[in-house]
TrEMBL record:
Protein name as annotated: G/U mismatch-specific uracil-DNA glycosylase
UniProt lineage: Bacteria, Pseudomonadati, Pseudomonadota, Gammaproteobacteria, Methylococcales
Domain Uracil-DNA glycosylase-like span(s) in chain numbering: 10-166
SUPFAM superfamilies noted in UniProt: Uracil-DNA glycosylase-like
Domain of life: Bacteria
Organism encoding this protein: Methylobacter tundripaludum
């Protein structure tokens, strides 16, 4: 069975972004909908809504606007890969191509923190990206994946960790 080549989305970011949240590669539902975190069981939008004060069921463009207003950028580490299904564990490591982070950081020079939405995003970034970028002033933190596949923590536990991390960035935004 041939694995399909998957392509990520463009970053959601403006020039004021101070925090970059990185996933690995959108899942099947997200790719089909052309929207980050489209799987209704993924807690990403629910957590962001709780932390930033917007309706998690708002239109996709309104949710993206809320992130930008909070100076949060959203992207994926992988530009392309092959994978059957949606699980990070099914990504063919030999097929990985990463996004152009050198250009991203050059054009988004206010980024001072990167949050990894799960272990795969962090490991792929540290292996494939970190050796090629100069981001001395940027701090990195892996957070628990918001994916429904990461069931070892409850929603409340994930929310607590994400809230603590967001507060630690001190973005002058009450959460």
């Amino acid at each position: 069975m041939t694995k399909p080549l998957l392509l990520c989305f463009e970053p959601i970011a403006d020039s004021n972004a101070e925090l970059l949240i990185l996933g690995s590669m959108p899942g099947q539902e997200s790719l089909a909908a052309s929207q980050y975190y489209a799987n209704r069981r993924n807690a990403f939008w629910k957590i962001m809504a709780q932390l930033l004060g917007f309706d998690p069921d708002a239109a996709y463009e309104d949710r993206l606007h809320a992130l930008k207003t909070a100076r949060i950028a959203l992207w994926d580490v992988l530009q392309s890969c092959t994978r059957v299904g949606s699980l990070d564990a099914k990504i063919d490591s030999g097929s990985i191509t990463v996004n152009d982070f050198q250009s991203f950081f050059r054009t988004h020079d206010k980024i001072r923190a990167v949050f990894f939405n799960g272990a795969k995003a962090e490991s792929a970034y540290r292996q494939h990206v970190l050796p090629t970028v100069s981001t001395a002033a940027v701090s990195y933190m892996r957070l628990p994946s918001t994916s429904p596949a990461h069931a070892s923590l409850s929603y409340e536990q994930k929310l607590h960790v994400w809230r603590t991390a967001l507060n630690a960035v001190d973005r002058n935004k009450p959460v």
